[in-house]
Amino acid sequence: MSCGYVSLPKFRVIFKYKCIHFALPAFSLLEHFNRTGENRNFYSKMVVTATLVTLNNGQKMPVLGLGTYNLRGQNCVDAVKTAIDAGYRHIDTASLYQNESEVGQAVREKIEDGTIKREDIFITTKLWNTSHEPAQVREAFDTSLTKLNLDYVDLYLMHTPLGATVDANGETVLTEVDYVTTWNAMEKLLDTGRVRSLGVSNFNSEQLRRLIEHGTVKPVTNQVECHVRLNQKKLIKFCKDRDIIVTAYSPLVRPSTTLGQDDPAAPKHAFEDERVVTIAERYNKTPAQVLLRYLVDIGTVPIPKSGNPERIRQNLDIFNFALTPEEVGTLDALHTGQRLSKVESAAAHPFYPFHAEF
């Protein structure tokens, strides 16, 4: 469910076992960055570097990354290489996305051509639901690392709190594997030296609290759907109070067609909202850039997905302006609680994360 909208399997449930504002370091731009903004047709020559946030284990993560859901084959390789050339130093993938090999290929090629060193780039991948049994965790991680063909990953996430298995008919069946036992198995991965940090995705506050209470390693991040229509302010504050960073997937409110059409009663897309457009014109930015900057200013790490070279570059160009508190308040008013990734087929599961208030 991270970095874009995932077309999840339809689950048959079988129970087999009876944030507020925070301060970020100042952004940094390479000295040749055009600060005047008089001509926005310079993206192909521009390199921008995002600011870093320090995680609760001392590791550093760039405040904006490239999401890669639904990027496949050479399109994925090209998008990641374009992003690295533009200045991205944070790439998000997952076992579910079936593109770890392509992401790894792109990273290795940019290392080989001298654009980056391995330590310059932050790579995230994720454990999928069908590998939640503790005995499966190490094998799943090793498989992802082999596909990436890198020495280590910077961040390994539990993709959801929902465990599952694939039955003899190839059908995905939810189980009640306790996500705490999965997390305990993930903690052991740190001893391998091949993963630097651990986190979760799609966890609510109650699940996070339980994980912290019963684990020995605190998650460094919780990657959740977060955008101007679902700003997750309460969850952001909960996480901030526990030194956990919120990573924002689907930050531009763009639902995949696999999730069906928008509710006809839903408000128009935030890109078209006059409040967003007015702020964008004020800063000579696009509506997308304003929406991404909003997420940074409320204390999240957005990971917009794109395969379009110009939009990839534009999405990173948000570190030469900041919204005022009044502008943040204006955009807060766009919050509707609209959740685009609901996974309703799993709603009866005891670990379904979206029944809680936050």
Notes on the protein architecture:
With 358 residues, this protein is an alpha/beta fold. The protein is 30% helix and 16% strand. The chain has ten helices and 15 strands. The protein has helices at residues 73-86, 100-112, 134-148, 179-187, 205-214, 233-241, 274-283, 287-297, 309-316, 325-332, and strands spanning 12-13, 28-29, 48-49, 52-54, 60-62, 66-67, 90-92, 122-127, 153-158, 163-166, 172-175, 195-201, 221-225, 245-249, 300-302. The strands form four sheets. An eight-stranded parallel sheet has the order 6-7-8-9-12-13-14-15. Strands 1-11-10 form a three-stranded mixed sheet, with no helix packed on it. A hairpin with a 5-residue loop joins β10 and β11 (172-175). α1 runs parallel beside α9 (309-316) and α3 (134-148) crosses α4 (179-187). The longest helix is centred in the middle third of the chain and has 15 residues, at 134-148.
Strand content: 15-25%
Q: Name the helix and strand elements from N-terminus to C-terminus, one letter apiece.
A: EEEEEEHEHEHEEEHEHEHEHHEHH
Largest sheet: 8 strands, parallel
Overall geometry: globular
Count of runs of 4 or more consecutive helical residues: 10
Task: Strand order, main sheet: write it out.
Answer: 6-7-8-9-12-13-14-15
**Low-confidence parts, pLDDT < 50 over ≥5 residues?**
1-45, 255-261
**Total beta strands:** 15
The radius of gyration is 20 Å
Mean pLDDT: 87
Percent of residues in helical segments? Answer: 25-40%
Distance between the termini: 17 Å
Helix-and-strand structural type: alpha/beta
